[in-house]
Amino acid sequence: MTSIYFLTLRQLSGRWRLLIIAAVAALPPLVAALPPRPSDGPAVAEFELVVLSVLLAGAVAPLVVLAIAAPALGNEIEDRTLANLALSPLPRWRIVVPKLLAVITIAGLFITMSAFVTAWFAFLGDAMAVGAVTVAALVGVALYASVFLWLGLVSSRAIGLGLLYVVVWEGFLSGYVSGVQLLSIRHYTVAVMHALDSRRFATADFVSPELTAAVVLIVFGGFFLLTVRRLRRMEVP
Amino acid sequence: MNTTVMPAAPPPAAPHGTTAVPAPVIRVDNVSRWYGSVVAVSDISFDVGPGITGLLGPNGAGKTTLLRMMTGLAATSTGTVTMFGEPVRDNPPLYRRIGVMAEHETVYEFMKGREFVRMMAQLRGVLRLNEAVDRAIGLVDLADAQHRPIGTYSRGMRQRMRLAATLVHDPEVLVLDEPLNGADPRQRVHFRHLLERLAAEGKTIVLSSHILEEVEQVADSVLLIVNGKLAASGGFRAIRAALDQRPYHVRIVSDAPRRLAAVIVGLASVDAVNVDPDGAIVVLSRNVSDLQIELPRLAQAAGIGLRRVEPLDDSLESVFGYLVER
């Protein structure tokens, strides 16, 4: 599995891709660094909604993960190198796991750094809050990675479809329709943050930690299994 | 109409407990594949045993689709493909015993040649990695270039490094789709010797090509695919003999077409002669080699100058077409 992991890291580490991702990931810390810094209750709630939920969890994280995850298998189909992996005697999950880990490694590096610095500026070094935001961001990356890796395998228009999903579902509908929130990765990413630091993020009314954990596992595991299933059944070019 | 020059009927698998007939390594049984209303492969059955089997056919005949089904990369619409008695589709462990070189250049350009072969060996669970990689790269004679990025290779070198990656786990079955694309004549000779050596070791090799001569030199038996159907199968000589019975059209431009027509119409190798309005004559012959010998002699004796002699239908496509339509 390590050979596929390192292969994927190399495939996805193109200079331009990383530069663009770095620029996008730098947005939340830039916004957080702007004065005034929130220090009281209402300001935290406002900051949480605008920067952590809408910008970081609902836009930057999914866009960065989309740029990494969709090509992880999609490019292998396009340039027909997927046959190299498909013709190996490995069970298909042993192809998907290192691909997924490589995506989480690269995207996670940018997004957790972005989350860490953003929270550091916003909460003036409050370790618990910073830790909660950083871990929640990593959970969000894992969820988006699982979804977009599958999308890259099932559609040659994964980037376009992914963008549509991010803008319409995560960006628009989940912000206005309460029912959609229950099917929104952004929502559960923020819910993880709440679960990890209820002291700082107790102002909003969120789903329980138990439900959050269950949904995270179901979404991540479900899309992982769908990817494995697709790889087993698809026509490899 | 599907014409089989030599029977493609598989030898029956040996009943359990007997040693009568060895089971075929690859069995393709009533396999069809269609994409919407387009039939790519139509009800093909054959067996492949150890040795080199050439898969021949014009471009677009269905060879690659058939090979993809034989290697499990694509599903059959109907029928089954088995290797060593096991289904190839969705059966990853079988790939320990199979080496597949696809038609397309499935390489990672950023990798060095040796890295690529080594990674393929790791994916296939090879234990003595360095030893296996050295051996595979040595087989294709690319040791000098192994530390260069594949992106800097010529097309022929890429093909050879891909072949090394295909051979690195020492598979019992090799499926090679147009492996000589981009190879120069020296590389072709080297490749031929390599295949012969592997076949002598008892490996089962399926070699696809649209170049008749390429396969003729190495294959013990051939499968001719035309329009998705098995047009002929069996020993190469038998198929060539069958092809030789086909009347060829030869166009001859001369100083005196009518006189030449009168002279050559009596030849045993000539079935018919037509004089075209443009002054050329078109000869229908079942024995072109005899015609090649007799024509200059007769023309010289009659004092007729030959300006041009050209076959009109010796392309592989027309030969295959003949086999299908016969």
Uncertain parts of chain A: none
The parts of chain B where pLDDT drops under 50 for at least 5 residues are 1-19
Helix/strand order of chain B, N-terminal first? EEEHEEEHHHEHEHEEHEHEEHEH
Distance between the termini of chain A: 22 Å
Please bin the fraction of helical residues of chain B. Answer: 25-40%
The structural class of chain B is alpha/beta
Could you say which overall geometry of chain B the principal axes of the C-alpha atoms support?
elongated
* Binned strand content of chain B: 25-35%
What's the main sheet of chain A like? none
Tell me about this structure.
The complex is a heterodimer of chains A (237) and B (326). With 237 residues, chain A is mainly alpha-helical. Chain A has eleven helices and no strands. Chain A has helices at 2-11, 15-25, 27-33, 41-78, 82-86, 93-122, 127-154, 158-176, 178-181, 185-196, 209-233. In chain A, helix 4 (41-78) crosses helix 10 (185-196). The mean pLDDT of chain A is 89. Chain B is α/β, with parallel strands linked by helices. Chain B has helices at residues 63-70, 113-123, 129-139, 155-167, 185-200, 212-216, 236-244, 257-264, 288-302, 316-325, and strands at 26-35, 38-48, 51-56, 78-83, 86-87, 98-101, 173-177, 204-209, 221-226, 229-235, 248-254, 270-275, 281-285, 306-311. In chain B, a hairpin with a 2-residue loop joins strand 4 and strand 5. The longest helix of chain B has 16 residues, at 185-200. The termini of chain B are close together. Chains A and B meet through helix 1 and helix 5 of A and helix 2 of B.
Question: Brief overview, please?
Answer:
The complex is a heterodimer of chains A (237) and B (326). Chain A is built from 11 helices and no strands.
